[in-house]
Design goal:
The chain is an alpha/beta fold. The protein contains eleven helices and eight strands. It has an eight-stranded mixed sheet, sandwiched between helices. Helix 5 packs antiparallel against helix 6. The longest helix is centred in the first third of the chain and has 14 residues. The radius of gyration is 17 Å and the shape is globular.
């Protein structure tokens, strides 16, 4: 199956370098609609859906392949090679931040920069590591999803999105969750929340930006700081935005932080925003 059809790849613009956008769990490329246009004049924008999400070909979903984040990273590498991309910029939200990190290790020539929005290499607390969840909490979350996909989506989306004063954002995320095939969503959630990719961070050689919201129930600030500490050539930006999806809730602040990083104007921990 052609990888571009399989992953519903869309290419916009004709800049000299490519910027590849990867969405998070239960979402699709539409979640970038407030961000990518700010870069379309300068970069070749590549949007896609992970297999099992959005407009991807569900027939391509393979339980064995997608039992780890490496299977999703393989697809990112395949997309880039099909489009003949090198020295590109990868922008990954949530679990896709780690998928991009793995892809950059698999194909070091593919990405010169990684922009990691709300990344987490491990969601479960472990010894002196703070992931944000106890093991019991993660399994309770997964059992809730197994038992009631629709109920989980409606209950969890507003919590993940944050910004309770803007309920339409939480509803959009809930709608996106509900549109995902329930069985695939359950498997992807298990792969996401039970993953441990901390060791991969030390192997990332691309220059990286870690974008972290100052209130995020999925990836608290301590997680972003940990990623920054472990990725040798990285910058850490603590946004004023709240929730786990600043690409939707605070796109202007997100775009500003990205542009500053890509311009090479800052390379240390900082705050961006009003």
């Amino acid at each position: 199956m052609n990888v571009l059809r399989r992953n519903n790849v869309r290419v916009v613009g004709s800049g000299g370098r490519a910027m590849v956008f990867a969405h998070g769990f239960g979402c699709d490329q539409n979640m970038w609609r407030f961000v990518w246009p700010a870069f379309a004049e300068e970069y070749r924008i590549v949007l896609f859906d992970h297999v099992g999400c959005g407009g991807s070909d569900l027939r391509a979903y393979d339980i064995g392949k997608y039992a780890s984040l490496e299977g999703y990273a393989d697809d990112v590498v395949a997309i880039c090679r099909e489009l003949d991309l090198t020295h590109s910029i990868f922008v990954g939200h949530s679990v896709s931040a780690m998928i991009g990190a793995i892809a950059s290790i698999q194909g070091p020539e593919l990405f010169d920069e990684l922009i990691m929005i709300g990344p987490s290499p491990r969601y479960i607390d472990d010894d002196d590591y703070t992931g944000g969840f106890s093991e019991a909490q993660v399994y309770e979350l997964l059992e809730f999803l197994d038992d009631n996909h629709m109920g989980w989506s409606q209950a969890m989306a507003p919590v993940i999105m944050g910004n309770p004063d803007r309920p339409e954002l939480g509803q959009e995320l809930a709608n996106s969750f509900c549109m995902t095939d329930p069985e695939i969503a359950k498997r992807f959630a298990r792969v996401t929340f039970l993953s441990d990719n901390r060791a991969d961070l030390d192997r990332v050689t691309a220059r990286a930006l870690v974008l972290q919201c100052h209130e995020d129930v999925i990836a608290p600030p301590a997680v972003g700081a940990y990623v920054h500490q472990r990725v040798s050539n990285s910058a850490f930006v603590l946004l004023n935005a709240t929730g786990h999806c600043p690409n939707l809730s605070a796109p202007d602040e997100t775009v500003l932080a990205m542009k500053i990083f890509l311009a090479g104007e800052r390379s240390t921990a900082q705050n961006v925003g009003p």
